[in-house]
Amino acid sequence: MKIAISGKGGVGKTLLSAFLSQTFADSGYSVIAIDADPDANLAATLGFPNPEEITPISELSDLIEERVGVRPGQSGAFFKLNPKVDDLPENYSVRMDGIRIMSMGRIKRGGTGCYCPEGALLQALLSHLLVQRDEVVILDMEAGIEHLSRGTTKAVDKLIIVVEPGRRSLETALTISKLAKDLGLQNIAVVGNKIRSDPDKDFITSNLPGIEVLGFIPYDPAITEADLTNSPLFAASPQTAKEVKNIYDKLVSSTRQPSIKS
Fold this sequence. Notes:
alpha/beta, 11 helices, eight-stranded mixed beta sheet, disordered C terminus, single chain, Rossmann fold
């Protein structure tokens, strides 16, 4: 199963990515968690030790030059658009408790074309991860779908847009949904986060008609406390873990793909 997670900044994309990664791993799946947000903190949210030591792929200039033939920053040079990347998940990731994490870094491309060496490598890597790998892949994206292209969207089983009870969050969700559909991605759903009441739920569902709602994650101050004290988030909020497990159950039941166990 390949899951992409997007939404407005600050709504809880990384929180959902981390909890889903942990839930899949605890259920016996081999998971690759991809941090594709320039403000990378997925490793820290998952509780990986020394997350600051994980270098984004886009910053590995020697690797980029080796694989695409041009060093980042050079202009006017030809470079490979289909570089070798199948060894990168093993060699440039960190693994813990059934989860392998990679940081992509900033990508300088949209859905229609690539114009930099690092972008070419990242796009080839993402295509490999989504199309050719057998693991569960969870992609934590920035506020948009810049990392996806028409080719990679075909491999995404679900685009989850995380929203909170707020007008700007829902406007961003509608924009992301439209862009995704323009690229041919139809399996789109939302998850509400920071939910305090039933009116919060009604506000989200009434303003996003026609979009599947996978679940609602309640507001829990324990998440903030755990973040401030650098404690594992998954253990800090049983109610969040319970709701994400319900979301996981819906995702698993909706796919007909065979289970890939580690």
